[in-house]
């Protein structure tokens, strides 16, 4: 039975549902088909109607497609389905198209047959978003990928025709099957702007597409805020303080940018409006006449009395840190008295906070743009303060003369302290010294007021005395970390006390007491010599060396000892107390040995006495040995310890030992280099002098592959801080 296709009504497989016949798939597509291979796909026909349907399959016209089915005429019962197989045998690498018809009465269901050779399927992202960047002339890179889902390699090309610093690499290439290629988009953030650019991308076997490039570039802004955080700080006023004291002010450093920043504080020298140690209240003609003082203050190192902690560091995006500024003025001599009111010294300096890194863009041609950008990357802060002298007046003066007095008595002197300083108050404290009592010992003297002080001389020794009394002035002095202050002496005033302790002359009063007297009443009576220092007589005591007297030595006795002590006639009450075994007594007149009582309950036994003596001798020997060892060690250090070693060495003909001065010089340089003051600010004058020194330095040695000296080893092991990076000098030679 031959059926002409032209007489049939062709319908798509999707519309076959109207005939209650479902065909899947709606098209038969052979993807990535290669010549010489066989590919098969099933076609399923399902009867969805309530009655049986008679269908007929028509074979494809092209020989590459073949319908594998034993009987082309089929009858499908209601609800049943059948499957036919379509076979594809390509004989060359090209795309082939045909159709498969399923007849249902006078209607035919058309199923497209498609044979495709392997192709590429390229795909690329449509947008590159750098987000928010900081204008610091750094190159930022974003990566996107071109993916090939096909089984054949595909070509691509990219092209950007804009004027912005955008580079896409690679600009063209081939993507292998079932793989991807990375495309880099570089953007240089040279100035603030909002970027919305497009780049043309051509993909093989696909229409041209566009790559959207979006960037928001902002300035890197450093802000100094008040401690409350709601107000910008442009000037810090320390106010007035005494020379030697300190004042602290705090502020918050804020990184108002989306990128981390390394910052460093630098003191500006010779800035416009700078004042160093001048008195702004002084007349101009008076200040000009003092040229020596003007020359001296010109060389003042401001970083010695103005500090900033921390003075360098790293801030993360939108991070804040607290900075402490310390003002500690020091008096600069001016051939005048230190307490002269004209010694007022006013300071107005400028501190710059820089961002460490690339600040001047290499792509910028307009100088005005560069200057505008630097204004945001640098923060300038003014610091003002005044140092005032401490002006105190003493009435009747700093030298006080006390009336003579005896031991047990006291002599008082009143003097007055006047505070003529221009600050509200000052604290004072008298150091404690022997025989003197100050009332009050410490206190507070307000501006323009006075404080009366009572000084009492209470001697415990005879003679004439000239004593220095130190008066300490207490104030707020910065601690070692320069982040806090404590009350410490900042100024000392010496007061001279002249006083005399005289000797009272009393007559000898003999009082006989036949009763037994206690030990503290020996000897009876009191005898005071008028001029004790010139007297050669011996004062009467309870015990004397008996060998120094010859009173009533009637005859010599064998039992008389040279180390015997004399006993007075009226000390019998004391003689009955327990004595020591190694002490012997005799009477003053007859040289008869006196009975010495030893209490066995409290006295040392012989063994205990020997043990005590051995213990004492052992420690005495240890101390003596230690002293001798210290002396020997010190003497060895002064000797040349390398004489024996050097005597056995023979110098090579081509080698020369370094001279000792050179070695010492290198060690001195290393030790000086390692003395880093972390709290001292950098200054523009110091940086310029170091740059000039580095430019004038001659390179006499070649580069080394490894460090050899201590200085080189120390340099190679350093992790540079932002403060050190800021001092790096790069020059072309």
From TrEMBL:
Q: Enumerate the Pfam families for this protein.
A: HYDIN_VesB_CFA65-like_Ig
* Keywords, ordered alphabetically: Cell projection, Cilium, Cytoplasm, Flagellum
Q: Where is the HYDIN/VesB/CFA65-like Ig-like domain?
A: 121-214
| Major subcellular site | other
Q: Where in the cell is it found?
A: Cell projection, Cilium; Cytoplasm
Q: Which GO terms are recorded in the biological process aspect for this UniProt protein?
A: sperm axoneme assembly
Q: Which Gene3D superfamilies is this protein grouped with?
A: Immunoglobulins
GO cellular component terms given for this protein: cilium; cytoplasm
- The name this protein carries in UniProt is Cilia and flagella associated protein 47
């Amino acid at each position: 039975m031959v059926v002409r296709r032209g007489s049939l009504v062709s319908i798509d497989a999707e519309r076959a549902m109207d005939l209650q016949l479902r065909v899947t798939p709606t098209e038969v597509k052979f993807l990535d088909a290669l010549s010489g291979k066989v590919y098969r796909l099933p076609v399923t026909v399902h009867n969805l109607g309530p009655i049986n349907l008679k269908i007929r399959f028509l074979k494809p016209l092209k020989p590459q497609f073949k319908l594998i089915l034993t009987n082309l005429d089929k009858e499908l019962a209601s609800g049943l389905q059948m499957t036919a197989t379509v076979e594809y045998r390509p004989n060359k690498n090209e795309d082939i198209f045909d159709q498969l018809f399923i007849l249902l009465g006078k209607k035919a269901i058309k199923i497209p047959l498609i044979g495709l050779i392997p192709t590429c399927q390229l795909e690329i992202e449509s947008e590159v978003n750098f987000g928010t960047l900081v204008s610091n002339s750094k190159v930022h890179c974003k990566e996107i990928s071109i993916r090939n889902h096909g089984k054949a390699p595909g070509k691509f090309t990219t092209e950007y025709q804009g004027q912005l610093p955008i580079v896409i690499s690679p600009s063209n290439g081939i993507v292998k099957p079932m793989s991807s290629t990375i495309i880099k988009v570089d953007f240089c953030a040279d100035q603030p702007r909002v970027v919305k650019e497009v780049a043309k991308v051509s993909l093989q076997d696909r229409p041209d597409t566009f790559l959207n490039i979006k960037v928001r570039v902002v300035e890197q802004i450093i802000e100094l805020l008040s401690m409350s955080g709601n107000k910008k700080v442009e000037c810090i006023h320390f106010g007035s303080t005494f020379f030697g004291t300190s004042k602290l002010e705090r502020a918050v450093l804020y990184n108002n940018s989306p990128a981390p920043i390394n910052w460093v504080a630098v003191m500006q020298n010779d800035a416009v409006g700078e004042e160093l140690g001048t008195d702004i209240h002084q007349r101009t003609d008076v200040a000009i006449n003092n040229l020596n003082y003007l020359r001296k203050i010109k060389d003042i190192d401001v970083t010695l009395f103005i500090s900033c902690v921390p003075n360098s560091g790293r801030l993360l995006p939108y991070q804040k840190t607290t900075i402490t500024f310390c003002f500690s003025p020091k008096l600069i001599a001016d051939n005048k008295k230190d307490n002269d009111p004209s010694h007022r010294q006013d300071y107005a300096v400028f501190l710059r906070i820089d961002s460490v890194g690339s600040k001047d863009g290499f792509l910028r041609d307009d100088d005005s743009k560069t200057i505008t950008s630097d204004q945001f990357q640098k923060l300038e802060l003014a610091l003002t303060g005044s140092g005032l002298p401490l002006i105190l007046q003493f009435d009747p003066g700093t030298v006080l003369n006390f009336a003579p007095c005896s031991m047990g008595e006291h002599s008082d002197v009143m003097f007055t302290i006047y505070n003529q300083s221009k600050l509200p108050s000052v604290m004072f404290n008298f150091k404690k010294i022997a025989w003197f009592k100050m009332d009050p010992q410490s206190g507070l003297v307000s501006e323009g007021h006075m404080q009366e002080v009572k000084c009492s001389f209470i001697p415990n020794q005879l003679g004439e005395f000239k004593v220095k009394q130190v008066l300490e002035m207490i104030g707020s002095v910065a601690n070692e970390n320069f982040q806090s202050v404590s009350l410490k002496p900042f100024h000392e005033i010496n007061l001279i006390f002249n006083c005399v302790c005289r000797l009272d002359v009393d007559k000898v009063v003999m009082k006989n007491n036949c009763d037994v007297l206690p030990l503290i009443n020996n000897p009876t009576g009191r005898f005071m010599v008028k001029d004790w220092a010139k007297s050669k007589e011996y004062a009467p005591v309870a015990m004397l060396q008996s060998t120094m007297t010859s009173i009533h030595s009637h005859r010599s006795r064998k039992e008389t000892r040279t180390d015997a002590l004399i006993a007075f006639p009226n000390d019998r009450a004391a003689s009955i107390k327990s004595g020591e075994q190694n002490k012997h007594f005799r009477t003053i007149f007859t040289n008869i040995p006196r009975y010495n009582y030893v209490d066995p309950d409290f006295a040392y036994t012989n063994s205990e006495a020997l043990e005590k003596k051995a213990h004492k001798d052992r420690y005495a020997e240890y101390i003596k040995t230690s002293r001798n060892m210290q002396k020997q060690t010190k003497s060895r250090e002064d000797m040349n310890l390398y004489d024996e070693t050097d005597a056995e060495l023979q110098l090579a003909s081509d080698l020369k030992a370094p001279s000792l001065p050179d070695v010492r010089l290198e060690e001195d340089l290393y030790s000086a280099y390692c003395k880093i003051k972390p709290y001292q600010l950098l200054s523009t004058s110091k940086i310029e002098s170091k740059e000039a020194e580095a430019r004038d330095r001659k390179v006499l040695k070649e580069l080394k592959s490894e460090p050899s000296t201590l200085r080189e080893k120390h340099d190679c092991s350093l992790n540079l801080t932002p403060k050190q990076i800021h001092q790096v000098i790069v020059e072309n030679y």
